[in-house]
Amino acid sequence: MSASPTKAKAGAEKISVVVSAKVPVNDLVTRFEFKRQDGGPFPTFSGGAHTVVEMNDAGRTRLNPYSLMSDPEDTETYAISVRRDDEGRGGSLFMHNFVNVGDQMNITYPVNLFNLDLRARKHLFLAGGIGITPFVAMSKQLDRIGGNWELHYGVRSAALGSYAEELSTKNPNKVHVYEDDKGEAIALEALLNGQPLGTHVYVCGPKGMIDWVRQTAKQAGWPDDNVHFEEFAAPQPGEPFEVRLCKSDRTITVGEHESLLEALEREGVDAPYLCRGGACGQCETDVIRHDGAFVHRDHWLEDEVKASGKKIMPCVSRFVGASLEIDR
Amino acid sequence: MTIQFNDETFRDDYTFRNSDWAVKRFPFPFHEDSYMYSVNMEQHRGGPEGSVYEKRFDVDEHYVSEMKDRAIVLADDPLRCQSLPHMTLAGWDLLELIMVSKSEDYPDLFELHRDGNTWRWINKPLGIDDTFTFLDETTLPFGPMEYITRQSQGDFAVLDQRDDMLWMDAGMVTTQADWSLDFDIGMNFFEWHAPVPKAHEMGIFKRALKFLLNIQQGAPARRLNWTMTVNPLLDTSPENYHKWGIQKTGLTAENIGQKQFLRVELQTFYRLPRSNALAFPIRCYLIAFEDIVSVPKWGRRLHRVIRDLPEELATYKGFIDNRPKMLDYLSQYDDGLPTSPGVWPDLDTEPALSK
User: How many CA atoms within 13 Å lie on the side-chain side of B177?
Assistant: First the structure.
């Protein structure tokens, strides 16, 4: 067909917003609330969805994904919580230090790569640290539709347990908080063992925790389809490298602190993306030829594809070697 | 009201007709003189004024009669509408999407008044004025998906998205091109597409699935599909093949212009907000051969497409036996002149038939 050929732009649809609140949650975490600039309603969303926040950091565009943690039925306000990462690439520091109430920003429509399986008889949430945020939205959604949920939440200390007190007070029989500094830990084997048939488990937290839950569940005989996880990889810095772009017919250099995707965007090359964390598959790019080694950091490509050297996910993966040519 | 609704039938005496307006806006599916499968997706955000692509859910002169036909099918066979238990939330999402879209796009025909969760829905063409509580099934005469799709032209598949796969877990299917919701319910994307020839080898379904999994809120997509139907039958279901299959043998050189219809599906895809399910409306448009050839460009092109279509495709689409008769008829309207690119009729610029 071609009724009105409109080529899809990279990324999800954008919404112009104003920062309506900036609330310190504890020493590390700050909550940001947004209202629409046009005064209209936000779309409702499904628990587990994220939005990509566009930051203008002194001329450099940063695009970071954050889980939406507001009530999915609340069309007036969206909220995210940002954990300050002093060792990171600077997006969270920018949010903490430079974004203030009244600032105008762009965020994307909600995108969900971590959705509830609505067939579940019970939803078992396992959170570590800032990984609590999607579960705040999911629990609110399930409360509305009468879903059965339970949360087990590991925090470093009571003082750093974002939203732990609020969640426990509101749901005393559903929320269990484990404080690291008191030597408390989730008794995972026993917990999984005691679940009714038809339970789905969801984990969001540090990579070590995700691996631990997936492995323990597998050993206990849980089907893969009943174990859900969300793992956004952040792009890691690395040695600068050159890339030949065959469609655009030019060669660019990826700097130490930027991703290949960011370098493409800086050069004005329209490259597709969605999650920017190696999870959604949208930015998958063909490698034409290479002489060197890939540093694959995504969770999208199968191991054999990674080994083949024929594909790269520019949002998180890098390259070390003499030459690289990609289909962009 | 701005649209004059036809009083017509899609069965028995077949009084279905397209007005001149409906012929000119018909979604002719061939943008060039040949056809092969492709994913052929584009964004669904409007189109030229008056075209079937302009509104989110197109309403045309056949609306009221199509809804009557749907009610007849459902009365005979309630399994044409099914929704697995976990899909109720997606049903509410779909109801909201359709009510909001129609009331905004056709304010003279549909009204939606919302006060918190108390909603009043007015459908003037069908004479409906209902007040209900959003997300409370007990306040509607049917489940939310069935309620709204009894008032919306086209079939609706509502696909759950889990584990990087789509699942046919709910739908309203009464105007289908020979597939069965009751058979496919609960199947995944590859299972329900298994009968389609050639496309698997071409890798089409893997690419299509990837595209569909990535359709996001606020960015709906669309594509066209097509087949052939003898008589203006909406319900060409496998369940009723014994009733309509035999009609394919009734074509003659004299009646083919009136009895042979090109059947085009405008397929759209929407990510639903609360359930993260994918709504897949499949809107069916029918046009008689004699009406197609009234547009010189379309007459020339349809002849060439049908003539050159690979045998497997003509077989799969169910018209291999009638192809010689179709070509005898259509060749009268192909004078060999070139055709302009694109799907539009181009009545002002394309030459009249010169033979």
Answer: 23
CATH number of the domain that A245 lies in? 3.10.20.30
The answer on A245 and A208 residing in a single domain is no
Task: Please report whether residue B13 resides in a domain.
Answer: no
User: Is A218 contained in some domain?
Assistant: yes
Domain boundary among A112, A147, A166: A112
Interface test with B, best of A2, A118, A140 (most B CBs within 10 A): A118
SS3 helix, strand, coil % of chain A, rounded to 5? 20, 35, 45
CA–CA separation, B302 vs B294, rounded Å?
Answer: 12
Note down the domain range covering A306: 241-326
Question: What's the pLDDT score for residue A1?
Answer: 45
Low-confidence ranges of chain B (pLDDT < 70): 1, 39, 199-202
Q: What is the pLDDT of residue B39?
A: 66
User: What is the domain range of residue B239?
Assistant: 20-331
How far apart are alpha carbons B269 and B211 in whole angstroms?
A: 11
CA-to-CA distance for B209 and B207, rounded, in angstroms?
A: 5
∠B213-B214-B218 over CA atoms, to 5°? 120
Query: Which positions of chain A have pLDDT values less than 70?
Result: 1-9
Residue contacts between A and B (CB atoms, under 8 Å)? 92
Q: Distance from CA of residue B124 to its chain's centroid?
A: 23
Residue A283 structure tokens: 């930015």
Q: Are B344 and B47 a contacting pair, CB within 8 Å?
A: no
Q: Which amino acid is at A49?
A: A
Torsion of CA B284, B289, B291, B295, to 10 degrees: 110
As a dihedral over the C-alpha atoms of residue B68, residue B72, residue B75, residue B80, rounded to 10 degrees, the angle is: -90
ipTM: 0.88
Number of domains into which chain A is organized: 3
Which DSSP symbol is given to A43? P
B-contacting residues of A 137-166, CB under 8 Å?
141, 144-145
Read off the CATH number of the domain in which A156 is found.
Answer: 3.40.50.80
- Backbone φ and ψ for A162, nearest 5 degrees, come out as -55, 125
pLDDT given for residue B41 in this prediction: 80
Judged by CB atoms closer than 8 Å, whether chains meet at A280 and B163 is answered as no
Q: Give the active site residue among B223, B263, B301, B304.
A: B223
